[in-house]
Design goal:
This protein has a 5-stranded mixed β-sheet with strand order 1-2-5-4-3, with helices on both faces. The longest helix is centred in the last third of the chain and has 21 residues. The protein is an alpha+beta fold and 457 residues long.
Length: 457
């Protein structure tokens, strides 16, 4: 396979060394032996290490402990955690319990970040009892189809990471490692995938095994080859999909190392942030709250839902938004609103029904003739219009009010906000804890635009 010179250079930097492969695999095999010596569970390595598609320096190792499906969830949790604790302690590891669909143990052993995850040894991925039960089938499928594509997957992962579109977490909404592997297999390598991605349109559907029957509405649909009811690309947003397509077009036009290397941009200083904000002439507001004590997979969607509901409330109240965003921090989370107006007149126009819609028109008239109004109801172009006083003339007052609880906030966000929240405006929105997030918001650009600016091309 012919590769561009920049690709060979990238592979020389990211392909695991033989020593690294041997070290990680040996550790995985020792952990498997320790699990199986218990006599209560089988074990297997899963993820990119097991599939030989991990990037040099990645120190993550996932070992799944497969238990009898006859166990109840409670028994799986109890026996799985007990075994994981015992194995971690056998290796002298520091460990802690973490939570996904059910608890597992995260341990640090000889500088490796190791997850010991209990799951059910189900006979097929269509009979899973929990989401993690599917993962061993993913590993087996990739191992049987990856053939000579390991380097192609490494290139794709590095390409996506540098482009800011790698990761299926809710903050990124990008490409998972498993999705990268399936796309590489389906298209037959990195180059073929890049050429296809440059032509993608919303609703692109890939079904490697030709067994999908369920209809999906996602931007990219990749039917899981081990579970026809699942879209592997469900976490991928329309924006990330087409940032990738844009990168593919740029790379095909002019391949270079710039597409594989992303230099982190230093965050803005407080003074530069204030100057840029002033130049925009918009009105920035931040709402900060205590981060709910749940995983990002739970909290981030609720932050997005809450921000969108508040945006709709702001716009109904006369404060149109340019952009909004959210950020989940360890202790605090932030909702960010950039508005086109921070204040509005006391008076607002409220347009009612056409007079010929008799029942609705009479209800409208009856309601507003009894209320205090600036003018109206009057008829304009056949419809009733009334000029009413606003409750809030400043966006900051609305954001600080309990009216926020009248909209559809995420459950855990609502609970957190009931303990209190803080609203800042303009340059006072600057917060060192969120410096990178705030800087990225003001300096937002597409991945290819960023590369072109950096390279001057």
């Amino acid at each position: 396979m012919t590769r561009y010179p920049c690709e060979e250079e990238v592979l020389g930097k990211i392909r695991p060394t033989p020593e690294e492969r041997t070290y990680v695999r040996t550790m995985g095999e020792r952990l498997i032996e320790a699990v199986e010596a218990s006599g209560v569970a089988k074990a297997m390595m899963v993820g990119s290490v097991a599939r030989d598609t991990f990037v040099r320096g990645d120190r993550d190792l996932d070992v799944f402990m497969l238990f009898d499906p006859a166990l109840s969830r409670e028994e799986l949790q109890e026996q799985g955690l007990a075994l994981a604790h015992r194995v971690a302690e056998e290796f002298g590891a520091t460990w802690r319990e973490k939570y996904a669909e059910h608890p597992y143990v995260n341990a640090t052993i000889n500088s490796l970040d190791i997850d010991l995850v209990p799951c059910y040894a189900v006979p097929s991925a269509t009979e899973i009892k929990s989401a993690v039960d599917r993962t061993p089938f993913h590993t087996r499928y990739i191992l049987s189809h990856i053939a000579n594509y390991a380097d192609d997957v490494l290139l794709l992962k590095q390409f996506a990471k540098a482009g800011g579109v790698y990761g299926s977490d809710h903050m990124t909404e990008g490409f998972s490692g498993y999705l990268c592997e399936l796309l590489t297999i389906y298209y037959g390598g990195f180059h073929a995938l890049i050429e296809a991605a440059a032509r993608w349109r919303p609703g692109e559907t890939i079904d490697i095994e030709g067994h999908g029957k369920k209809q999906f509405e996602d931007p990219l649909v990749v039917i899981d080859p081990v579970d026809p009811e699942r879209n592997v690309a469900a976490a991928l947003s329309l924006s990330r999909m087409f940032e990738f397509a844009e990168l593919a077009r740029g790379y095909l036009a002019e391949p270079s190392m710039a597409f594989f290397c992303r230099q982190p941009s230093p965050p803005l200083t407080r003074d530069v942030f204030a100057r840029l904000l002033s130049a925009r002439g918009t009105h920035l507001f931040t709402l900060t709250l205590k981060t709910p004590d749940y995983t990002p997979d739970t909290v981030v969607p609720q932050l997005r839902k809450s921000a969108e509901s508040i945006r709709e409330l702001l716009e109904r109240s006369g404060f149109p938004a340019n952009r909004i965003d959210v950020c989940m921090g360890a202790e605090r989370s932030m909702l960010l609103f950039e508005l086109m107006a921070g204040t509005v007149p006391v008076m607002r126009r409220h347009i009612g029904p056409p007079v010929w819609s008799r029942e609705n028109a009479e209800k409208f008239l009856a309601k507003y003739v009894r209320e205090e109004v600036f003018a109206g109801p009057y008829i304009e172009d056949g419809r009733y219009v009334v000029e009413l006083p606003r409750t809030f003339t400043r966006a900051v007052d609305l954001l600080r009010s309990r009216d926020l609880f009248s909209v559809a906030l995420g459950k855990h966000v609502r609970r957190s906000m009931k303990q209190g929240w803080t609203v800042n405006t303009g340059a006072e929105c600057w917060d060192e804890e969120f410096a990178g997030f705030l800087s990225g918001f003001l300096e937002r650009s597409s991945p290819l635009a960023r590369i072109k600016r950096l390279t001057g091309k």
